[in-house]
Queue: 3 jobs
Job 1
Amino acid sequence: MNAAFELAVDPETWRLFGVSNQSLIIGFFISALVGVVSGILISRFKWLERALDPWLDFLLVIPIAMIMPFVILTMGFSLTSRCLIVCLFTFPIIVINTRAGLRQVSTELIDMAQVFGANERNIWTKILVKSAAPMIWSGLRAGLARAISGMVLSELLLVSVGIGSLFQLFQGEFNPEKTFGLVALLIAESLFLLKALALLERRTIPWFYADRDK
Amino acid sequence: MIKISNAHKTFVKPATRKTPERKVEVLNGIDLDIQENEFITIVGPSGCGKTTLLRAIAGLVKLDSGSIVAAGETVAGPSPDRAMVFQSFALMPWANVIRNVAFGLEIRGVDKEEREQTARDLIKTVGLAGFENSLPSELSGGMKQRVGLARALAVNPRILLMDEPFGGLDEQTKRLMQEELLRLWEAQRKTVVFVTHSLDEAILLADRCILMAARPGRITEVLDIPLGRPRTREAERTSTYIDLKEKIWDHLRTAQIQELAEKAN
Amino acid sequence: MSIVGGLALFDLAARISKQPFIPEMSDVFVRIFELLTDQDVLSDFNRSLQNLFLGFTISVVFGILIGVLCGRYDTVERTLRPYLNLMLTSPSILFVPIYFAIFGISRWAIIVLIIDYSVFFLIVSVTTAVQSVSKETVEMASVFGATEKQTLRLIYLPSAMPVIFTALRVTVGRAVKGMINGELFIAVVGIGARSQSFARQLDMVGVFALAIIVVCIALLLGAFLNVFDKRVNSWAPQARASK
């Protein structure tokens, strides 16, 4: 644990964290945006769903870690390629959850909206997306966990520009304590990020948790 | 007010591993005239087409042949003029009571202050004053249905369609809601089509009661309910009521027994 | 249909772009056959699958055991909850360096990682499954004089089985992920290790071929579980495929 503190007060650590996290944050945001929009488009246009469905399942099951080198080799070591890797990890689960969320909207609710005069646009904005919100958020949370995995994996296996370089250093020094300390910091960071997302979720869809608090 | 002419609707049940594809004739030549300000109940066994008929009037189901003319216009799709109250309430769980009640007005484009005021008035009318900002998850079944009712009334429809609205409520709440509905209807006599499983509801609420049977879905009888208006629970103790109830039960009992026999085969 | 279409497109893109690292699909398929008939590669598979089997079995045994205990006894669940939460929410990959530091380059590092990926998820799933067993059925059993052991064996276990099997299917996927990730980082032999060596040799066709094989393994294991599930849980209404 001392190692963790030592690392935490070292500004160099923070700089490296910053470098690694760039790809995490950017990659996650892009995946979230594109993922949710894709989920919506897939639900709206059946032909699109039929075309993309097998690829989604494929991306979800395949250990992206194995294909990572391929990305680096075609695109080189850059922020873009690292972000792309994070996106590969994150994107599928967000799309799948968005689609699932839209699918489980109760038909009664849609009937109701039609009876009261809603056109298709109304139904999408006022009913479908709002109904699907809890599942979309669940996908975002899972996506963030995967994004973190992706970031860490790419650091450990490929591009050691950020914390990966620290790991290599500590390995070279045969210093397990420092390694543990670094991992502890990383765990703390991931818990922090996930908690932050959860809080954001709570503020966006308070209604979903209202009865659980009683 | 509503004229149903020779309505036909067939559903195709897709084949499963154990059964072949089946065609179910859910509506077989339904003819019915409903007068303005009339309260009609439709009762019958499961599968007799009563809900399908209601949804056809609503415009949520398209007939295979025949037509429905409501308030002078042929029904081609759903409309707030034929507002509906749903069995599972169909409330938006993310919106509070006011927003739910004002939903139809919001779609119509009524501006916020006006629609909230209308909503508040109706919330009071249905007896939910004080719960304006509550979420559906905080309400009981009976309260949720009051919201459903308020929402339907908010758009001032000429026709009110009710799909087993009290089916999901316990007996006591159900009885309360029936009395509430009678009271509300006395104040504003809209044309109502009310589908139910309950024999009591079928008689207590109605001016006329439509009996339907299944396979194929059809109207077997139309009963007049000469129990006078304004209607109160006192009516349940008259001999007319008892006779009517027995008549309806006879009809339903035969249908239930038939259905069990068919399922066993 | 679209898989073929997509692959064809990919192949076309590969041929057109002449990028050295985008493999041509026809090459990949040829390679898959070559790999599956190569003795060295097969011994890699053997090794990896042994680890997988060990890790998975240990996870299943402990997962179901602890899960049932947590589901049945509230105090157990409350004590373990913070640890389960911690292990579940922090991405398992973060533990790779730790296991590596503890176990070095040995199969146990990988097996422990597989367990890390699998067991915590399984415990929580089993707990939920047990908790959702109908209280009325349990009460019924006690009215008929069933002992604790009997209730666990005759009521809880069968009731929870369908949900547990679904959880097992997901766990298989997680275990495979754990195996691969572990091997990529730690191992010298095994599928992951071979993939890494291909990558270092810039043999992208090999990497792709291996990746596809891994996916197939995961799908096969899942399908196997499916069959087993249907036989054990034939009483439960099967959820219709949600397509």
Job 2
Amino acid sequence: MSRVLGQYLALTRRSLFNTLRTPIAIFPIIGFPLLLLSMTSAAMERSTSLPGFPPVDSFLQFMVATTVIQGAMFGAIAGGAGIASDIEGGFFERLIATPVSRTAIIIGRVASVATMAFFQALVFIGVTVIFGMRPEGGVIGTLMVAAIAALTAAGIGSIAVAFGLRTGSTEAVQGSFPLLFAGLFMSSAFFPRTLMTGWFKTVADWNPLSYLIENTRSQIIFGVSWGDFFTALGIAAGILVVGTLFANLALRGRLAEGA
Amino acid sequence: MSTLAVATGIAGRSLRLIPRVPSTFIPSVVMPIFLTIAFSGPFANLVRLPGFPAEKIIDWIIPMTMIQGGMFAGITTGMGVARDFENGFYDRFLMSPASRMSLLFGPLLAAMLRAFIPFVILLGIAWASGANFYAGLMGIGTLAIAVLGCAVAAGAWAMGLALRFKTFQIAPLMQAGVFLSVFTSTAQMPLDLLTGWVHEVARVNPMTNVLALARQGFLGDVTWGGTWPGLVALTGLIGVLLFFAYRGMQKVIP
């Protein structure tokens, strides 16, 4: 048992260090979401005065939960691309030639994106606090948001890993990014559902990402709410279950092909 | 062969690549359609803000996404040059007696022609979504000038980068330049409703005037006062970026 745990930790550490050692890989997962947050919050600030907009101090306060989830998604895609890069570079082939636990290959990668997302969330909230954003949930609420981000990253990361294992192509994994971005746009990530109309509102109402983000956002704009926290965790856990299933199938497929 | 004939030949080659390698062109059509949905859907109620100049959000958003489509089309030609460098095809161009100006203007001509495709598709989407064509053909004309001009500007920017870095890996920087230039202007909100640093940048960003040129037919009549600042901004933008591409070309001439 401890031997398998050691393998999980070793592969998690390897994935994490691979990301941290490449500064150019840090920008898309931290710099880009912060840049988007900065532009959107300055552009959309006046919209908070619209009747029906949730009671927020600023658009920055409204948007920070979106940035946290967005950052988690970017990191998750990078995780999927990482395993594809291992396949392209031949590391995966060497790895499966060793007696390493097969589940460690998936868990190591997923755990690293989850760890990364947890600290990313703290960075995002920390930076916005410097710019005057006040998280109503305080330290507890912030840690809850980071925990949701970690589980979301694990869920999306496992789907990205499945895709990486299936295609073995970093380009293909990164090419799936617009799909995620589209999913995010078709939710209440950038604007409240109360101010949406027509078919777009219907799509946002059915999109689980709307509820994931709204229940994360509530920790920041209303304060600590255990009910909202567990709802968000439940959605993220659902994504993780589906993603892990796909990742296992993809791993089995690749092993059957002889990598 | 004359410069024009070579430039036309290069532009024709770029257009023939569309059916052969559709993956290099499809994003320039899909992305602006996606942006149209992504921005006009959730932000439909922004028009209720006091001072918002559009009656419907589609009137405000679609000229911006059309410009994005034109710029993406411009970028794809720059990406084509980068790919030609990677597979050695561009070296054959450089060894040929073709005028260097034709190597510069060929892809830019292609950028304009490629931009026409998303422009026409988005015009259809605007019509189907009930956008207000207040100024009729005059409005479509000023919009076309803005879109095709932006395609040339983005093409020159992407070519300048491709000629300097000679690798396809520079593509994200090509896209980032376009993205930043548009979203630090009045892409989402009118200037008076912007706040903070984006307001300050948008005030001096030439894209603000280019967007005003593109939008005027959707917001009311086309006037000379609403046209000339956009034309000046567009001419300046194209001039500077053409010089950037020209200097890049000088660096690769053996």
Job 3
Amino acid sequence: MSKRYSNEHEWATIDGDIASIGLSAYAVEQLGDITFVELPEVGAEGSKDDSIAFIESVKAASDIYTPLSGEVIEVNEELEDTPELLNEAAENTWVFKLKVSNASEFETLMDEASYKAYIETL
Amino acid sequence: MPYTPHTQNDVQRMCAQIGIKDETELFQSIPNELRAKSFDLEEGLSEFEVFENFKNLASQNDTSKISFLGGGYYDHIIPTAVDALSTRSEFYTAYTPYQAEASQGTLQALYEYQTMICNLTGMEATNASMYDGGTAIAEAALMAVRISKKRKKIIVDSGVNPIYIKILKTYLAYHDLEVISLEVKHDGTDKETLLSMIDESIAGYIFQNPNFFGSIEDYSEIIKALHNVKAVAIMSSYPIALGILKSAGEIDADIYCGDGQSLGNYLGFGGPSFGILACKEKYIRNLPGRIVGITEDRVGKRSYVLTLQAREQHIRRDKATSNICSNQNLMALRATIFLSLLGKEGFEKLALQNYNKSEYLKTEIAKIDSIKIYNQNPTFNEFVIELPISATQFIDKMEEKGFFAGLKLETLLENFQNRVLVSTTEKRTKAQIDSFVASVREII
Amino acid sequence: MNSTLFEKSHNGRSGINIPKQGLADAPSLDSSLLRSAKAELPELSEFDVVRHFTRLSNKNFSIDANFYPLGSCTMKYNPKIQERVGGLEGLANLHPHHITNNKTSLVQGALKSLKILEDNLKEITGMKAFTLTPQAGAHGEMTGVMMIGAYHKKKGNNKRYVIVPDSSHGTNPATAAMVDYDVITVKSNKDGSMDLESFKDAMSEEVAAVMMTVPNTLGLFNPAIKEICDIAHAHDALMYYDGANMNAIMGVIRPGDIGFDVIHLNLHKTFATPHGGGGPGAGPVGVGERLIEFLPDLTVDFNEEGYFFGTPSQYTIGKVSPFFGNYMVLVKALVYMQTLGREGMINASRKAVLNANYILSKLKDHFDAPFKQYCMHECVLSAETLTKEHGVRAMDIAKYLLDFGLHAPTVYFPLIVKESIMIEPTETENIDTIDYFCQKMIDAVELAKNDAEAFKTLPITLPISRPDETKAARSLNIRWQA
């Protein structure tokens, strides 16, 4: 399953019209030890690049922006009690799942190689 | 030159090290046209002269009369140990505890403060203090808006200290929010009207109990109604009352606000005191201000640290829960010491005595024919008297008799002419109260 | 041993005695109004409490005992005379509701002190009027930005933004947000000043205000400041001066003369009132002509009969504090001003700037020095090279200093300098202390080159070392529960 990235450091994979969204390892590394994740509500709707969730670490806090438009259909409740899962395996830990409203948006995101090049410039 | 240690020798050495001839060269980057147009201040004075100046100023204030003034600010005992400990320079010349290893004294004291406040108020979370009871209410209202996911209406009971309501309105004027005042029904809350107003557009309701008139009511029904529509219940009160009255937690309020002046702090013409802001556990991430937590250090020793800093301005900047950068640390420390000295038994005793003495005053005043007790509800340590003469005349004449008799309500509230708020504390003796009542009889 | 008061508590111990009641108990209130159990407070003797807090105090660094070169905090000596004045009965026991009762006859001394303070602040800053009510710098910022909002509202201006430089203190954007403005951040140029061209690009008719610190948070003076003021005013954007760094410029620059419309001062910085471990402070706000009518509603006026309360304008923003804010802190600042006087204040700024430049000249060859020109009252160094080559960060340098009784400088602020170390010695420190500090900073660099691992266990002489902040946030415990 190909993974694509937004320039706000979220990753997305898509299967039909269901997308899984997470945070890149780079983003988590920048934040440091994650202490809290405020998950979106199931049923919440967001347009591409809307702020949809919130993450906090010891020294920083950040909005999480949805890279795709759609409706939240599932959230990773494990992150409520164990936010450190993100520090352990950000690239393999989904945060929420979306029923996308416009699957073509996926192609506008960066592929893995482009994202790698992008973070080099930061 | 006061407080700078530099000798001519020092200055020469330093200039040589920097590579300049004299210190004014360091200001060369500032063009002449930007320089101060004047700096016309008096010359400095010796310590002795300064102290005489202030002794003089202090003597032009009157603190000599026996005080029956309340209205949120009270003449309570302040144990000498509070002064002795809080004036240790290790406490008062310390800085904000950002380097935890160098601040365990401040941090542990704040942790103990937080614990005591939670126990008094029945709440599960609190911060290391706000500026005062009024700004605490404003911050609580903003919390309610965040918690309710941006509902736009706040109802404030007019039984809340009117000065605090002004602060609330000032703070909220810049947000797309509506502050709705609920008029009092005689000396209490108009419950019927309030219940009819509670719906899903309401972010929260703010009430004070005992209210500004000293009246005490049962708010449990109101709070249930608020929770039914997921609105936030904010209770403000004066903390000594918590010695005997139901805590905010016991009535299931969501947020508690109060002012800490009565907990070991001088009146000081209004400041500094500190604000108490406490809430249920689930709202802790919405709390503004500093919070101290407990943890372990590198070798497992118990340690105290500032925590949840990601809410605060130095990290979140424009998304912070508030712009607040400080707490009233020293005043919160004084309160912690005060509460420790009183202890579990002493704090209740203190509250009881405040209650009993003001009941005695109320009973004795009620015996005067031409005066009515305005309150219909039970009261804690203050109440409103209705006079046959103007409030101004009453206060002036009682001052001649040696009393600061009370608070003129018409300054703060419409349609409250001839009404004065009188308060007692544990410092008023039976003899002083009797003398007060006798004087009232004389001047009426 | 750092047990809490609760762990030391013993059932039945009592602290102080309160006065005997001396009259009969009144009938009790209805039980529906009463709490079901006493509030859990510790039970200790007075001596237990005294010993506990005395020992706690011994775990603190403090200005009286330790050099505190925290950039942007102005940790200067707190004169003892302030505490003595603070103890005066006629000030400490004065009831604020004499204001509500309009009993000016009872508070002439207090009103006079406020008027003298205001007059001094006007002369020091060149502003036209002050509100003394805000209780901290951030509180003053909020008050100032609220007045800016009121000004634009009265004129019917459609303003949405506040411009801040990227070097700004976190309170600046947080304040703008509290007043519902969006923030535009303008980058600094390589000299550390807000970049003029970028500023011009960011400016528009929708900008309500520009918030600046002068000198800026890097301790540098922006030579384009007058031009910035003029450009802002041409777009009816108001200029806000963050007075945190006033200690560098007393008698040299007055923000009112340059064209700032509103300023706040931090009395607990420039005017030496004690920090109290985090507060109370005071943040009086001064305004130019444009904003006088918006000042909070409590002011002091004077005529031949004495002092009285000014009549608030109908456009006042209202109240930001119940009365005059932290009145007893205002008194302490006035004590300081009267002690220093004109020459003392000019000298304080000169020596503050001299001390900071002395440190910069001694350390700029040992650390990265992002800005080469003379600094003002604080200097910024960076540990970026140390981090790259030896893995030793600014925080590690900070922890190293603690073992020598030196509080660390500010680290990680301003955000635009990587591994920043911001040093503000203030004018009250002598050359021996400063030399010792510089020597220790140089020793730290040596240690970094020879034994970088050693930093991980520092500090070693303090009550604790490297507390686990992650654990504190993940396993949140903010109150003692048995």
